[in-house]
Amino acid sequence: MELPKMDRGWVDVRYTITAQQYWNKERSQHHISDAGSTEVTFDVFPQAQPEPLPVAPPPPVIQTPTSGTLLKREPNIHITGTGTPGNRVHVATRLFYALESNPGYEHKNNGSSTTVDVDKSGKWQVHLGYGGFTEPGYVNARARIVAKEIHREKDSLVSHETIREVPVEVPAKRAPTQAEIRQAAIASAMPADKMAEIQRREVMTSGVREALLRPMARITAPADNSSVGETLNVSGTAAPGSNLQVSVKRKLRPASRAGGKPMPSRGGSAEDLGTFTARADSKGVWKIRPVTLPTVRDSANAPAIEITVVELFAGGKQSTPHTVTVKQGR
Q1: What pLDDT, on the 0 to 100 scale, is given for residue 287?
Q2: Domain 61-167 belongs to what topology?
Q3: What CATH number should be reported for the domain whose range is 218-257+266-328?
Q4: Domain locations in the chain?
Q5: Which residues make beta-bridge pairs with 68?
Q6: Do domains 61-167 and 218-257+266-328 have the same CATH topology?
Q7: What is the pLDDT of residues 273-286, one digit of tens each?
Q8: pLDDT at residue 264 tops 70
Q9: DSSP secondary structure string, 116-181?
Q10: What average pLDDT does range 213-225 have in this prediction?
Q11: DSSP structure class, residue 194
Q12: What is the mean pLDDT of the chain?
């Protein structure tokens, strides 16, 4: 007897066999009934059940990198894991970070994605970029790895996602270059709405943004165009901990003829009164030691004192200078 064919996906398959006996009587045996005997029923099970229908596989396991790993500032991540042999694993990466200037807003850089096969031993691996390099000023920078397993027979059968976030190394801050400082100076003169639009689009580099946010070294005392006596006390503000260079020069006017008219000359002379260094404290305040000014001989031609401060950066670079000019009295 040929048994009915079993289809894939059937469960608890068995064959039920029913038997009944009838008497094979002769014509002369009218006394024997035509009715059959009592039915006998029993089940027969196949040696193997049909193969089940495919179902969504379990989530893959991400082995490396671990959540405690600090990723170096490199273009790719080496990712390894395990899964069901013969299936495929789809892996995607993305870079998340915030900026020191706005730690409440999180940026998301698209990374890379690919699909790899799980080998016979149940292992898989892949190298993927994660969305660019971290820059100075990034906070809470991390690479997010998302992996999901796909059934080898049916692409629509996909596992739940396995998510792993791994911190990424952020380089130390550096002093802005002269080009970045110049670009920051141009940007600072832009209308507020234009500046906001540029920042939203992230056109500027992090170095330029850092230069924009960094307080400029300024002279707060004495005030510009004020008068000073024989002693000059100079102080100001700058970024906390910054190193500053302050130069003081005295510009003498040309001598005058009788009647107050200046004598023919190409201009007055300049006298260097010294160059001083200072360091801003934790609040950004700095000052230099008092400077004793030479005596003024001609009050009618009071000299102008020019005071200039710059911030000093690594490699001999300097910030944009800030200058005030005061008049020296007697």
Answers
A1: 93
A2: Immunoglobulin-like (2.60.40)
A3: 2.60.40.2550
A4: 1-52, 61-167, 178-213, 218-257+266-328
A5: none
A6: yes
A7: 899 999 999 888 99
A8: no
A9: EE--TTSEEEEEEE-SS---TTEEEEEEEEEEEEE-SS-TT-BPPPEEEEEEB--PPP-PPPHHHH
A10: 88
A11: H
A12: 83
